[in-house]
Amino acid sequence: MYKKFIYIFILIGLLTKTHAQDLPPIIKYNTGIYNAANQNWMITQDSQQYMYFANNDGLLEYNGNTWTLYHTPNETIMRSVKAIGNRIYTGCYMEFGFWERQADGTLKYFSLGKKIRKKILDDEQFWNIAQYDHWIIFQSLNQIFIYNTKDENFKIIRSQAGINKVFTVNNTILYQTFGTGLYEIENGRSRLVSNHPYIISNKIVNIFSRNECLLLQTQYNGFFELCENTVKPWQTEADNALKNSSIYSSQMLSDGSLALGSVSNGIFILGRNGNVRYHITQNKGLSNNTALSLYEDHDKNLWVGLDNGINCINLQSPVRSFVDDTGFLGTVYASVYYDGLLYIGTNQGLFYKTYASEEEFKFVSGTKGQVWSLFTHNGTLFCGHDSGTYIITKNTARAIFTASGTWKFEKHPANPNLLLQGNYHGISVLEQNGGNWKFRNWIKGFDYSSRYFEVSSNNNIYISHEYKGVFRITTDAGYTKAKQFYTYTTPTKGKNASLCKYNGTIYYASKDGIYRLDTAKRQFLKDKGLSKIFLKDEYTSGKLTADHANRLWFFTKNYINYFTAGKLNTELKHNVIPIPSTLTNSMVGYENITQISPNTYLIGTTDGYYTINLNDLKFNSYNISITNIATNVLNENARQVAITGSGSFPYKENNLTISYAVPEYSKYINAEFQYMLEGMQNQWSEWSTRPFINFKNLPPGNYVFKVRAKTGNSVSPNTAQYEFTINKPWYATNLALIIYLILALIAAYFINRAYKNYYQRQREKLIEENRRQLEIKELENEQELMKIKNEQLQQEFENKNRELAVSTMNLIKKNELLSMIKDDLKKTTDGDRNIKSVISTINKNINEDDTWDMFKEAFNNADKDFLKKVKNLHPSLTPNDLRLCAYLRLNLSSKEIAPLLNISVRSVEIKRYRLRKKMDLPHELGLVEYILSL
């Protein structure tokens, strides 16, 4: 029973702890990336800072952008590689030699082994290559071949006991044999240095110079110091671990540290005094626990050739990362440095450890679940949790609010004993009373999720809701209820948008840009200067975070960005850390960055976190070089061409692919490139991470291709360029143009002659045509003139007819007047002779028939034979009917027609009715309307 409790206790300890050593960034290259075999036996770097690996499949080259594999000449495993000058020396099974760069940028192999083929033993493999002055040393397990690069001769040193390894230390060449001791090569001969039992009984992996002594690193028993024929152990912190590890490779780093690669226990990095700086294994980020080779490059990165892949450890990086491969911690959403402890809030709960220590993370009991935020106020640490709000004291958590999940906390603008917290269902208030914090009240009238909110003046609270937009509530003085509620139409809601107060100003960021609150107008105004950042780099998240150093942080696709306040003006200064989101592995929309120390920041990721020291943040500049140029005919395979000098290509090969690279091997920095093709475009392109460019269907002409690189904020000191010419097609050459010119002149002569004849005929034809046209034009003019004269006569005729009609009407009016006078005279007296004489005179002057005939003639002239038209349509009409039609055509009323016909108005109405009957008009059609329409 007692043992069971021990096992349970151990299990709980394992489940509630995880090792928390912050490690430098590690870049992992697996076989799928470099397209070669698993094992990598030796590593080197050339003067261009390209990396080379002795791989099972051959020589593997990496220039920072592209991996290239060169197979061994005899298709055997490549065991050794060494870059010396412009050559890459390699050794494999029964063969060794060197590779040289060709004009097209590829490497070509030159054998040295074939010169002394008979001296190479059967099944001999060359495991190591070293250099001493102008001698190159190729070492197998049986012989040492010393190649003189000046006279190209060889010296051979053999050992019956077998050779372990060759070392070059302090201008000496040393080698160890199996079971006989350590030797030095002088004047082409071997001299015993020491046969101490420690040396005979231990396999030496490497020898370093230390304090004018030799430091011997062995496979199983750690280190020994060889000073003046005295050998004694050199103790380190890792001695016990090294005894249980088989050390296969080692390297002294530029700062005096020692890197040790083991067969099954990863790599150890020891300080100058033997202290363990790092012990990196597979469960701490290494791809494999078997380190076959180690190499420190020009930028002090440590390359590890593994039994299954290649790793690059950025030892000088300002970034330190903690990767939780076990999934114990989970995704980090919040962090804080508090009371000497580092607290990490994840989707698994709250964890802590002593800051800057190698302690394991411990779980804070009672916090299982999603942690959203960590907040310190007046010496108290608050934890915003899916279950509510907790107060954290070292390794304990006390719940003070459980009614809803808590997003974040904000200080009360005036009362330090009050805190506002954003919850899943609104905003609530915490109060400190007697040193204890407790829930006081909800702010009634607002129940939306408040992940982002900021408190402003006059009891205004601004809230950002990702799916509903931006709100403003105005509370009462006690922050108990919302008196006013306002929804903003600008800015609009946005994915991963947020709200943050910085330097007393509230900012809102979304995919539409960055907005600033005008507190006087209580409106958000778009800040065009700050919003340009989203135009330069792709938007991923609007999450804003303000720190204690007066920096405002946010994340975009290719950069970590932060604003700082201007010293001489109010404008914010934009700063970038060129770490792309693809490498940071942060949760989009939940990015979090916390200031741990004045210049150290912690950024949470989906599998741990990483820290950045801004003081150590610097970017080296690298020379860029063109690595490959290929041309091809459309839809055919490409051919590589020389990358040096200038190129000249036939027109059919006017499709070019130019590759370029910078030897930069940092995990968190991507090199960017910018190119220009003079002769086609005279402006630099946009920055891009693509290490090549395709030009298709280039027209004939002379071109100069230029490319430069940027790593971080540093632009390459050089600009690589390549001049080339696309020749004209055969049909556009000078000879072809001369032939074309001659043919054109001949054709022009005959064409000119034909055109002269043609135009002569056309001229004669045109003259004849013009003469005929002139005659026709004259006839047309005469006809037009006659037409105008006829129209004038017709117009005069019609005017006279109208005048006649008017005169007739006046005559009718006169008759009407005389009739009235006659009627009045008749009424005066019956027997007066004088009156009768007057009446007789009046009768002589009234002649209705003559008057009507005159009116009829004038009316017909004025109205185009209207009466004839009516008579044709209605043959049964009498002259009196036609007379009535004429008056109606003039749109006269019955009252006006009566005196003209010398009848009463009633008689006129009867006549109209009878006329309608004779015309057989429908009931709905008016008589006058019908007559006017004719």
Structure at a glance:
The chain is of the alpha+beta class and 934 residues long.
Describe the model.
It contains 14 helices and 66 strands. It has 934 residues and is an alpha+beta fold. The strands form 16 sheets. The chain has a five-stranded antiparallel beta sheet.
- Taking all Cα atoms into account, the compactness measure Rg is 54 Å
- Unreliable sequence segments: 1-18
Hey, roughly how much beta strand do the residues contain?
A: 35-45%
Indicate the structural class.
alpha+beta
DSSP summary: helix tally: 14
Number of strands: 66
Strand order within the widest beta sheet: 1-34-33-32-31
Largest sheet, strands/sense/barrel: 5 strands, antiparallel
Mean pLDDT: 88
User: Helical content, roughly?
Assistant: 10-25%
Report how far apart the termini are.
Answer: 128 Å
Shape: elongated
